[in-house]
């Protein structure tokens, strides 16, 4: 009888932890969807309000490692013109250790550049999950890597020389 009660207690406890985890992952997913929608709607305040004050956005170009204020300055003309960017989620995986104020994720997105991969870190800021670090990459099929490498060879050579000189 004690075994059955212990087993029942364990199952209830595990179920409650799973519910907490599911609720956290749903909250993170909702915030990411709001973030992408704010960009699609060119809503500057909403978009940047969903990032932490020390947020970082790493874009598809090797020169795009934006600290928040620089990213805002770069992005403002696009938002002001009513044409930021539109990313639609194809799939997303969220990783969240229990009781942590940090989570990370990866996602595949349908974008104006075709399929892209986003990955990042979310941080619980007060009671709200916000994007702290985001990396956007263009997904390139393996069979096209050689062609792409040749296409960007001259640009990369110049950038590598510039970076090594610093």
UniProtKB/TrEMBL annotation:
Task: List, alphabetically, the InterPro entries matched.
Answer: NTF2-like_dom_sf (IPR032710), SnoaL-like (IPR037401)
KW Signal (keyword) present: yes
Q: Does the keyword Nucleotide-binding apply?
A: no
Q: Where are the transmembrane segments?
A: none
- Specify the SnoaL-like domain's residue ranges: 28-141
Q: Which residues form the signal peptide?
A: 1-18
Alphabetized, the UniProt keywords read: Signal
- What's this protein's name? SnoaL-like domain-containing protein
